[in-house]
């Protein structure tokens, strides 16, 4: 006897399926089912995961899909052959491309056209019998009627009616479990998912709730008992399973061949490689490099990867033809062929290349080439790929967006009927992208009663739902390009972004099936560097590229050693800035090590401090053997890179290169249970057999284990180090250019524009405010009064101001506007846009204060000037008014409201009198090591690295400098709220100094964020306008004279209109319902938090 469950939905039927595909297959194996199909609603999204587990467990896996038509008819489809699968993927693509992302519109006629070769099981729908007859006429014996128990007491009569209908039409019946969960205990989660889907609560779910837990996966015995009156329905499940011979293993990826230039792919690749070598080595290719090239080309030819390399080369050539800066990175930098093709820039002279890290003959997996492009111009590259290969042959991989702690708490909390306050209190206890949920202790510390059974259940279900897919998004840049139709391999759908299409599978699915992708990634620093080179060429007449940037500049390394690296690529984090003065890099090899060393691998392997001590001459450099000296000499006997760890496995433990790569993959997220221990035992035994010390062997393996969370190969570090040096060189020699380009490349990096501007000013760069007469959309350079180059802030810095308005304002300026009315008439900006300019103090050149400018904008007529009155104006009659002068604190506050930065006094300087005594950060250098200090400042960054064992790093900024604070877990537990939400903190602790590196070990943390709200509070001043209060403008202004005449609008009416416009402007700038900007202060002084 045999039985196959043909009707299961995984959690890729979003917010319906209550089990992972893997759980369903594993449960089927435990129940000893002969086969299982996963058939999700209008998607093949979960089948790869099910297929992979089924293959490992020896369970027959049937590919299926639950087609839901526009009239709500439901039909299960199972392709019998590879060709039938291709027709179903095209059918799904057709339905998905017709509508918006996440939806699918299919008609019965579509299925009749594309369903050939598939077995179809009709489930339900209006006009059910007519639908089955239509299917029968088209597909004959491949059509069945499904019998699925509803557990409503009427299943017996329902089955009889369905069986009779099947006999009448001449089709067969088949038994279905209609499964949505692998075990009955998931029923609670299934109901919560329904609540989220239906946007309701568990108390109001009603008949949508599962009546029982019977939609679980059942054994053959249970199913035979349910269908004892219809034994053929059970028998037919296995007949269908047997007929469905198609396996996902049959999918064969074929590379595109447009890029061969009419030559054989291997011949074309060799030609391009030789051309590249001639450019890279004009004096002749070194013998070592020649040998590497020949070996690589042989492996590439044996594995038939030439077309892939040619495709990547084609994309890179296109980008450079358009002036788009790009650079390959990752394991591809281990390839001399990639270096010759110009895909990567790390040469064999810079690093030790381990080709097996990139491609392995034994691994039988496609290579993965990552190429970074300027983040603002990557879309040009993406559209080029679509245009060249067509949307039926090219598509972006998807990314599965999962429930994580914070979202899970919010969604489950609402579904369980918790109050908004309770949900907010729970979510506030989550740090970053946590996947741990909220513990009872954390809920209790949030002031909630953990004895409440509803709350406890919500916390339990939150943990269950974490990791469930919520929806599909697009991958950051993973492209799949095929020779034939991509939509015959996988369904394609529209992305949320215009002009983008996405396949249903993510990168793990693609890897599992051996399909090849190109990662077209974006990197903000490439944008910054390219814009810097453009500005240097424009203003200084000097031309630079990454290749021609002057190398080995002592002044650049001096700057790096002082950790003067705000804005510099990769070495601007607090951890890197603390490490730089201790390491003191003096050459490019040092930069490679610097980039790689502050990573989980070396940290968890306890390699950082030995490396430093040996480098600084504080510890003798010892090599375990002469064989390993060649591997470890450049890093002072301490393994820092993945490639070194692989080489150690080869040299010390006797691994082959392929085995060493298998070890790396086992530790790097591709592992199966037990594989790591197997490798560890063999590694240690191999080292001991060759006479190596056990401690050394264990340390090496521990470092390998560290790479499992974030492996960082030397090739990747070298690619990044090139950008580290280039950005450092620009910052050191052209600080005004660097500041301007960095601001124009936001959002990116570790610091907000406020800190970038502050750092530039500390380096002597003059930064000028936004000006309606002088600014453009981008930040620009202009000559200052002393003849030096200054940075003029652009309209892009104004919050909510559109790029289109910025360009209109600049293009219509001519010889200048000289008045707000002229800006309004000539640039055609709306009053909302003008209000944003006025709020940013962009009209200061007109002799207007911020309030006066806002007043004038409010006094304009309609939202746009009427053509008939353009020459004479059409605003309201001017009224002389005496507006109260804004205090410096209010000006600073408004600067943050409009631009999130200020060129005036620092907020801490203004609040110093209101804060308990504290030490200025500049004075910390003079304090004794180990002494107690108190500091205060704005929180500009928070970090909680995964390798720091719960330690949190905070950067505080006052009006003098920044200070680094370390918060140990015990202190964090005591001051959790202050650490997670505080914007202005006062911290007491011990000063700790190591060389020139200083930080504070926090012992007490106080939150003074409420003082920031007072910056924008005008209550201390008299005669304040509250634009949300009717006629407030009349309180302190003189009575108008009688200039209007009897027929004109009364001054009282004028004041009402202006007050109304001020209120509208207020809402536009701060949000509807805001009584005063001080209520929005918490949104202004924000930090950049990293987890």
Automatic annotation (TrEMBL):
Ranges of Basic and acidic residues composition bias in the record: 1027-1044
One record GO biological process: DNA replication
One MF annotation (Gene Ontology) recorded for this entry: DNA-directed DNA polymerase activity
Keywords associated with the record: Cytoplasm, DNA damage, DNA repair, DNA replication, DNA-directed DNA polymerase, Nucleotidyltransferase, Transferase
Catalytic activity from the UniProt record: DNA(n) + a 2'-deoxyribonucleoside 5'-triphosphate = DNA(n+1) + diphosphate
Disordered: annotated span: 1023-1051
EC number: 2.7.7.7
Protein family membership: Belongs to the DNA polymerase type-C family. DnaE2 subfamily.
Protein purpose: DNA polymerase involved in damage-induced mutagenesis and translesion synthesis (TLS). It is not the major replicative DNA polymerase.
Identification of the protein by name: Error-prone DNA polymerase
Protein species of origin: Henriciella mobilis
């Amino acid at each position: 006897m045999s039985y196959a469950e043909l009707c299961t939905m995984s959690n890729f039927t979003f917010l319906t399926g209550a089990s992972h595909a893997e759980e369903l297959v594993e449960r089927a194996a435990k129940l000893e089912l002969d086969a299982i199909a996963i058939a999700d609603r209008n998607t093949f999204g979960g089948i790869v995961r099910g297929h992979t587990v089924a293959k490992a467990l020896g369970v027959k896996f049937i590919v299926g899909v639950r087609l839901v038509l526009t009239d709500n008819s439901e039909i299960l489809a199972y392709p019998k052959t590879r060709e039938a699968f291709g027709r179903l993927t095209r059918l799904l693509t057709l339905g998905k491309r017709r509508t918006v992302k996440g939806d699918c519109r299919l008609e019965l006629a579509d299925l009749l056209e594309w369903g050939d070769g598939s077995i179809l099981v009709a489930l339900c729908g209006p006009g059910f019998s007519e639908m089955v007859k239509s299917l029968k006429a088209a597909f004959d014996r491949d059509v069945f009627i499904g019998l699925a128990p509803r557990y409503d007491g009427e299943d017996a009569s329902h089955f009889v009616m369905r069986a009779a209908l099947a006999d009448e039409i001449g089709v067969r019946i088949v038994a279905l479990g209609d499964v949505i969960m692998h075990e009955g205990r998931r029923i609670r989660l299934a109901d919560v998912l329904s609540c989220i889907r239906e946007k309701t609560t568990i108390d109001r779910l009603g008949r949508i709730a599962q009546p029982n837990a019977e939609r679980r996966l059942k054994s053959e015995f249970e199913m035979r008992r349910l269908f004892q009156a219809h034994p053929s329905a059970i028998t037919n499940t296995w007949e269908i399973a047997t007929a469905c011979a198609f396996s996902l293993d049959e999918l064969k990826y074929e590379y595109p061949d447009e890029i061969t230039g009419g030559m054989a792919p291997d011949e074309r690749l060799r030609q391009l490689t030789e051309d590249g070598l001639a450019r890279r080595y004009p004096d002749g290719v070194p013998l070592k490099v020649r040998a590497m090239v020949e070996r690589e080309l042989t492996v590439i030819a044996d594995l038939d990867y030439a077309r892939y390399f040619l495709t990547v080369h084609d994309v890179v050539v296109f980008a450079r033809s358009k002036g788009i800066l790009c650079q390959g990175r990752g394991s591809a930098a281990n390839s001399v062929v990639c270096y010759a093709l110009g895909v990567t820039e790390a040469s064999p002279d810079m690093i030790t290349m381990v080709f097996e890290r990139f491609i392995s003959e034994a691994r039988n997996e496609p290579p993965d080439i990552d190429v970074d492009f300027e983040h603002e111009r990557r879309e040009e590259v993406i559209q080029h790929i679509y245009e060249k290969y067509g949307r039926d042959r090219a598509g972006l991989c998807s990314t599965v967006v999962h429930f994580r702690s914070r979202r899970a708490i919010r969604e489950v909390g609402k579904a369980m009927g918790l109050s908004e306050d309770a949900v907010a209190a729970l979510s506030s206890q989550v740090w970053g992208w946590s996947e741990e949920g909220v513990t009872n202790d954390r809920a209790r510390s949030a002031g909630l009663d953990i004895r409440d059974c509803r709350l406890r259940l919500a916390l339990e279900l939150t943990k269950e739902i974490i990791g469930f897919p919520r929806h599909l998004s697009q991958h950051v840049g993973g492209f799949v390009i095929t020779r034939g139709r991509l939509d015959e391999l996988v369904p394609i759908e529209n992305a949320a972004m215009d002009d983008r299409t996405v396949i249903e599978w993510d990168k793990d699915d693609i890897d599992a099936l051996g399909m090849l992708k190109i990662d077209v990634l974006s990197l903000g620093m490439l944008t910054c560097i390219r814009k810097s080179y453009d500005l240097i060429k424009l203003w200084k007449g000097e031309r630079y590229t990454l290749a021609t940037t002057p190398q080995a500049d002592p002044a650049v390394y001096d700057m790096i050693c002082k950790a003067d690296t705000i804005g510099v690529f990769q070495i601007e984090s607090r951890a890197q800035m603390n490490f730089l003065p201790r390491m003191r890099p003096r050459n490019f090899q040092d930069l490679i090590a610097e980039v790689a060393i502050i990573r989980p691998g070396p940290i968890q392997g306890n390699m950082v401090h030995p490396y430093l001590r040996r480098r600084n001459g504080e510890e003798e450099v010892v090599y375990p053997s002469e064989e390993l000296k060649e591997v470890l000499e450049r890093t002072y006997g301490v393994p820092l890179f993945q490639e070194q760890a692989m080489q150690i496995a080869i040299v010390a433990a006797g691994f082959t290169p392929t085995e060493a790569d298998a070890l790396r993959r086992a530790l790097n997220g591709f592992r199966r249970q037990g594989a790591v221990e197997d490798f560890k035992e063999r590694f240690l035994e191999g080292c001991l057999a060759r006479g190596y010390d056990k401690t050394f062997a264990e340390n090496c393996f521990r470092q390998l284990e560290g790479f499992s969370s974030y492996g960082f190969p030397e090739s990747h570090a070298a690619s990044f180090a090139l950008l580290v040096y280039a950005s450092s060189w620009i910052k050191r020699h052209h600080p005004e250019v660097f500041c301007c380009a960095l601001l124009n490349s936001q959002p990116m990096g570790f610091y907000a524009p406020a800190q970038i501007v502050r750092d530039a000013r500390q380096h002597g760069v003059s930064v000028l405010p936004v000006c309606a007469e002088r600014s453009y959309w981008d930040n620009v350079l202009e000559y200052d009064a002393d003849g030096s180059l200054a940075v003029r802030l652009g309209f892009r810095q104004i919050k909510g101001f559109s790029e289109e308005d910025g360009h209109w304002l600049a293009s219509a300026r001519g010889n200048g506007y000289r008045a707000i009315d002229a800006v309004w008439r000539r640039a055609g900006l709306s009053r909302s846009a003008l209000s944003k300019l006025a709020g940013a103090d962009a009209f200061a050149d007109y002799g207007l204060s911020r309030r006066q400018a806002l007043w004038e904008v409010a006094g304009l007529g309609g939202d746009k000037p009427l053509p008939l009155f353009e020459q004479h104006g059409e605003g309201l009659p001017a009224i002389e008014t005496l507006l109260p002068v804004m205090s410096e604190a209010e000006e600073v506050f408004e600067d943050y409201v409009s631009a999130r930065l200020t060129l005036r006094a620092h907020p801490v300087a203004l609040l110093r009198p209101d804060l308990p005594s504290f030490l200025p950060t500049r004075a910390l250098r003079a304090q004794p090591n180990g002494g107690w200090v108190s500091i205060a400042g704005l929180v500009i960054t928070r970090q909680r690295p995964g390798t720091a064992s719960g330690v949190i790093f905070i950067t505080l900024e006052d009006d003098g400098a920044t200070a680094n604070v370390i918060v140990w877990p015990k202190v964090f537990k005591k001051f959790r709220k202050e650490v997670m939400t505080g914007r202005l903190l006062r911290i007491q602790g011990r000063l700790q100094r190591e060389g020139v590196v200083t930080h504070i070990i926090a012992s007490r943390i106080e939150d003074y964020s409420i003082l920031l709200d007072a910056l924008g509070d005008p209550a201390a001043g008299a005669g304040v306008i509250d634009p949300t209060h009717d006629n407030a403008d009349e309180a302190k202004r003189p009575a108008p004279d009688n200039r209007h005449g009897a027929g004109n609008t009364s001054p009282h009416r004028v004041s009402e209109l202006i007050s109304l416009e001020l209120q509208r402007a207020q809402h536009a700038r701060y949000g509807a319902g805001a009584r005063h900007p001080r209520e929005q202060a918490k949104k202004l002084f924000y930090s950049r938090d990293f987890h």
